[in-house]
Amino acid sequence: MKRSLLAGATLSSIAVAVPCAAQSSVTLYGVIDVGINYTSNAQTGRANGALKGASQFSMQDGGSGGISGSRWGMRVKEDLGGGYGAIATLENGFNIQSGTLGQGGAEFGRQAFVGLTTPYGTATAGRQYDSVVDFVQPYSTVAMWGGYPASQPGDIDNQGNTRRVNNSVKFRSKDYGGFSFGGLYSPGGVAGSTGRNQVYSLGVGFSRGPLSIGAAYLNARDPNYSFFGTNPSSGTAATSNNMGSFGSATAAQSNPIFGGYSSAQTYQVIATGASYKFGASSVALNYNNVQFKHLEAGDGPNTLRYGGTGKFDTVEASYTLQATPSLLGGAVYEYVRSSGANDRVAAHYNQVGVGADYLLSKRTDLYAIGVYQRASGTDSYGQSAVAAINGQTPSASNHQFALRLSLRHRF
C-alpha cells in the first residue's frame, strides 16, 4: 500500500465520523508521536566567555523532535446544497511526554477555523497555515519522511509548520485540470495604520502525472509580533525577542540562525518546490529566498544595532523510496547561505539526513531519522556560527548530529 508520511495538517489519520444530523458530520481524529532523541552536542551555557556543550538524550514529542506533532482535533461538515457546504476545524496540539499544551499554551494552537466550501474553492477564517505551507511544503523533506530534524535549518521558511497566522482569511481554489491557487490575508488590526502587523501570502500549484510543482510568496509586517509572536507564551513584541535570545551564562541560546533579526520591519519568503515520481522512487527539489528587511526599523529588540536586510538562500534536494508497501526510506541534502545585516553577517549551513519508516499496521509505525549539520561563518548573533538542527538545542560548536527513534499512532 503506497502512502506518503505527511507532517502537519496533511498527515492522514484514521478518523471516526459521528453523524450529527442529515447531511452533517463531525470527525474526531488524532496523532501521538513520541520518541527518544540523541543530540551529540547541546549548549549548556557559557564558561569564561565561551559556549559550552554536552551530549544529550531526551524524550521528545514529534512536534519538536520528530515527524508529527501530537494532536487531537475535530472536523465539522454540513451540506448546504447546490455544491455549497459549511466546515470547521479545531485542532489541539500537546506534548505527549508531559501532557502540556503545545504551541505556547494555545488550546487549539495547531488550527482553528470556520468556512464555506463552494463550487469554486474553499474560504475559511481563523488561525491557519500560510500559502508556503499549503503549496510548497509538500515538496520538502519535512512533509515526506524527515520531519522537523531534517527540515531546513531553523525552519527559516516555515515549511515545518512552526508558526501559524492568527486572525486570517483564506481561499483555496478547486483543482482546474491540475492547476490550483490560493491566498491568505491577516489584517493588522491597528487603528490608523492599515499595514502594521499585517500578513499576506499567495500560492499556486500544478500536478499532472508524475510531475508536481508549487510556488508561494509570504510577507509579514512587524514579524516579531505578527508572525513569530502569535502563541500565548510569545510575550510583548516591543519588549521580548520572539525569534530567539542570546541566552545567559547558564541557559542555551535560541535559534542563532536568525534569532538576532527580531528588529526586522518585514519578513518575506519566496519559495518553490517540485517533485517527480518514477516507479517506487521520487525526487524533490526545494528552493527559497528569505529576507528580514529593514532591521533598523521594526518593533523588536536590536541589541546588535543591525541595519539593512538579513538574507537567506536555501536549496534542498531529496530522494524517497517506497521499498515495500510497509517500508519507506529517504535521504536529503540541504544548503543555507546567509548574508546581509550591515555586511558583517555571513554564514553557511550544510546538512544531510537519512530516514526510514516501517508500518506495523495502518495506524501504527516505527521510524528513525538521523541528521548531521555543519556551520561556518558568522551567524545572526554576531558569533562564530554554531550548528542548530531544527527542534534541538543549538550546538556549542560548528557541528551537530541528531538521531531519533520513534513510535507513532494515528486514531
User: What Rg is obtained from the alpha carbons, in whole angstroms?
Assistant: 21 Å
- Widest sheet, order of strands: 2-4-5-6-7-8-9-10-11-12-13-14-15-16-17-18
Helix content bin = under 10%
Uncertain residue ranges: 1-18
What is the CATH level 1 assignment? Mainly Beta
CATH architecture heading: Beta Barrel
Give a concise summary:
The protein has four helices and 18 strands. It has helices at 62-65, 131-135, 141-144, 223-226; strands at 16-19, 24-47, 50-61, 71-81, 84-93, 111-118, 121-128, 165-173, 179-186, 199-208, 211-221, 266-278, 281-293, 310-322, 327-340, 346-359, 364-378, 399-410.
Can you describe what's shown?
By secondary structure, the protein is mainly beta. The longest helix is centred in the first third of the chain and has 5 residues. The protein has a 16-stranded antiparallel barrel with strand order 2-4-5-6-7-8-9-10-11-12-13-14-15-16-17-18. It has four helices and 18 strands. It starts with 15 loop residues before the first strand and ends with a strand. About 5% of the residues lie in helices and about 50% in strands. The chain has one domain: Porin.
Provide tags for this entry.
single chain; mainly beta; Porin; 16-stranded antiparallel beta barrel; 4 helices; globular
